């Protein structure tokens, strides 16, 4: 009687390094062009900037929604990483908050996030997971600064994210790239207004992040 061997289990092939690089180049090019021109930029233009063929774009992203979602999630993930770095710092809690805010502005999350509601299902699991991670980490960064007595207590995560979004967008009718040079100047003015003790009482109440989803 011959012994039977167990069937071998084939592992799923790992993506090749060049395929991963192409995907990263597509996402980077799409992020740049979405910021510059909005979500309706032609996919062949994205392929051209990424230095790949149209077929490579569609092989990685079957439709525009999939590409937009990947871009937004990647920006949120990098923003979350910036928040994690801020939490890992053992020095000045408010300085860590400042560095996070400026990094988030550089990611241009403000220009990308509005595309979520206009192009695809904003409740997609990947998007929800990235968003919840960012929100939790930002709350921790702000909470640490409040505990240290450096951040005024009457502001919420929603307050911070609204202002970062508004200040990191160029004013209507201005050139997008030229407006970038003012972003960090105006963000710093805003950050100085967040320091405790507060110089004035804010009207209304702190804006929580969940309220932004209902707007």
Task: Tell me what the structure shows.
The protein is 67% helix and 0% strand. The chain has 215 residues and is mainly α. The protein folds into 2 domains: 17-62, Homeodomain-like (Arc Repressor Mutant, subunit A, Orthogonal Bundle); 65-197 and 206-213, Orthogonal Bundle (Tetracycline Repressor, domain 2). The protein is elongated and about 55 Å long. The mean pLDDT is 82.
Order of helices and strands: HHHHHHHHHHH
- Total beta strand runs: 0
The rounded Rg comes to 21 Å
CATH superfamily of the largest domain: Tetracycline Repressor, domain 2
Identify the overall geometry: elongated
Oligomer: single chain
Given as residue ranges, the uncertain stretches (5+ residues, pLDDT < 50) are none
CATH architectural designation of the largest domain: Orthogonal Bundle
What CATH calls the topology of the largest domain is Tetracycline Repressor, domain 2
Helical/strand content category:
mainly alpha
Determine the number of helices (DSSP H or I, runs of at least 4 residues).
11
CATH class wording of the largest domain: Mainly Alpha
Alpha carbon gap, first and last residue: 72 Å
Residue-averaged pLDDT = 82
Domains counted in the coordinates: how many? 2
Strand content: under 5%
Largest sheet: none
What is the share of helical residues?
55-70%
Domain HTH tetR-type: 20-79
Keywords: DNA-binding, Transcription, Transcription regulation
Protein name: TetR family transcriptional regulator
DNA-binding region: 42-61
């Amino acid at each position: 009687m011959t012994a039977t061997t167990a069937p071998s289990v084939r592992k799923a092939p790992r993506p090749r390094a060049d395929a991963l690089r192409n995907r990263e180049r597509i996402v980077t090019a799409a992020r740049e062009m979405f910021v510059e021109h909005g979500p309706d930029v032609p996919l062949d233009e994205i392929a051209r900037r990424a230095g790949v063929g149209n077929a490579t774009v569609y092989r990685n992203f079957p439709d525009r929604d999939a590409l937009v979602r990947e871009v937004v999630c990647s920006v949120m993930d990098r923003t979350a990483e910036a928040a994690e770095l801020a939490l890992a710092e053992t020095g000045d809690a408010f300085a860590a908050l400042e560095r996070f805010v400026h990094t988030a502005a550089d990611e241009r999350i403000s220009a990308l996030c509005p595309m979520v509601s206009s192009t695809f299902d904003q409740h997609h699991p990947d998007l929800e997971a990235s968003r919840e991670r960012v929100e939790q980490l930002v709350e921790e960064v702000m909470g640490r600064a409040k505990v240290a007595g450096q951040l005024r207590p009457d502001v919420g995560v929603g307050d911070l994210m609204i202002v970062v979004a508004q200040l990191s967008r160029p004013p209507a009718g201005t050139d997008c790239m030229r407006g970038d040079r003012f972003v960090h100047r105006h963000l710093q003015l805003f950050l100085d207004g967040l320091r405790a003790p507060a110089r004035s009482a804010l009207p209304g109440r702190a804006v929580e992040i969940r309220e932004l989803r209902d707007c």
